[in-house]
Design brief:
61% of the residues lie in helices and 7% in strands. The protein has helices spanning 3-24, 29-32, 43-62, 78-97, 121-145, 155-162, 174-195, 200-204, 214-234, 249-268, 272-275, 291-315, 325-331; strands at residues 107-112, 115-120, 278-282, 286-290. A two-stranded antiparallel sheet has the order 1-2. Strands 3-4 form a two-stranded antiparallel sheet.
């Protein structure tokens, strides 16, 4: 990773946060604090946790003064939370502006529960954005249930709105991109392991998270990896995979294993120059993208929809546990 790459992640992160806050401003005070089962108590709790993670990590990584965990009760409304979030955005930008590329491989050590943990700077910074994507997905599900969907928060939509069609940096680091894709596989497996414990009725139970059911969301996750691989390789769009073609999780897992192998064959066939090359494809207009930006989107997109699956599975009594990038790094 290079500093310009990290700044792109955080520009996306700020954009997506604003979409969530814009939708959250419409909800009533009662909806803001209405209990849910997503892990942080209510919409306000999830929003404050998302901000708190960025605040805490930047304090740790850049030597700021720790302020302790943010308390949702200190934020009476979205306007108060938005103001504090704006202050953190400014701190985040200032911190990133102090970095040069060589800084990103620095290692930081933290202590927790009597154990020491080492964090590579770029990995910790990517974790903050990935963590934000996970909890924004939970917030988006809550807001959609209230009738205030924030809409699409895909990285590709951000690229489209900002017309990002080139890379400011030189070659990206191949090992870094592959690490993110290995994380994607690890997290997908954790979701599938839990989904196999769900009943047939739970797998197909209707919800309003955007893909109809747990099965629909799992198939959409798999479909995105399949579609992007084909698009990047051939420039062609494929027909969407249909949930009704997969009767159970075993069938989804079997097809996904085939798709995973095909994606890794494609990645392994790319040169370092290929990863930073500009590719084009047709959408509503011709799009020009850095190839690795599209792969980063695949991972971020997976994080978003895995959060939806995790929420459903938790409601069914089959929580997949912590899917954070940092947990993956510790597992390795």
């Amino acid at each position: 990773m290079k500093v310009d790459d990290i700044k792109l992640y955080y520009a996306y992160n700020e954009w997506a946060d604003q979409r969530i806050l814009d939708a959250a401003e419409i909800v009533t005070p009662a909806q803001l604090t209405r209990p849910n089962e997503f892990g942080w108590g209510d919409l306000r709790g999830a929003l404050v946790h998302t901000l708190d993670a960025e605040t805490g990590w930047f304090s740790f990584l850049f030597g700021g003064e720790g302020q302790g965990m943010l308390d949702p009760k200190d934020f009476a409304d979205i306007a108060t939370l938005r103001k504090r979030w704006g202050q953190q955005n400014e701190i985040t930008r200032q911190c990133l502006d102090t970095l040069i590329d060589q800084d990103l491989t620095r290692v930081y050590t933290s202590e927790h529960g009597g154990k020491s943990y080492d964090w590579v700077l770029w990995q910790a910074l990517v974790h903050v954005v990935n963590h934000g994507t996970q909890h924004r997905a939970e917030c988006a599900a809550t807001l959609t249930g209230f009738g205030h969907s924030p809409g699409d928060m895909d990285m590709t939509l951000y690229y489209n709105e900002r017309d990002i069609r080139s890379s400011e940096s030189d070659k990206t680091n191949r090992e870094d991109i592959e690490l993110l894709l290995h994380y994607n596989d690890w997290a997908n497996d954790k979701i599938l392991d839990c989904a196999e414990r769900a009943s047939a009725e739970q797998l197909g139970a209707a919800n309003d998270f955007g893909w109809g059911s747990l099965r629909g969301t799992l198939v959409h996750l798999m479909d995105a990896e399949y579609a992007w691989r084909v698009l990047l390789k051939t420039g062609e769009h494929v027909e969407w995979l249909q949930p009704e073609d997969f009767l159970d999780v075993a069938a989804i897992r079997a097809r996904w294993a085939s798709e995973r192998a095909a994606l890794w064959r494609y990645i392994e066939g790319l040169s370092d120059e290929d990863l930073s090359s500009i590719i084009s494809y047709e959408g509503d207009e011709t799009r020009y993208r850095v190839l690795w930006h599209c792969l980063a989107h695949v991972v971020n997109h997976g994080t978003q929809h895995r959060a939806e699956c995790a929420a459903l599975l938790t409601g069914f009594g089959h929580s997949p546990g912590n899917l954070d990038f940092t947990v993956f790094l510790l597992d390795r």
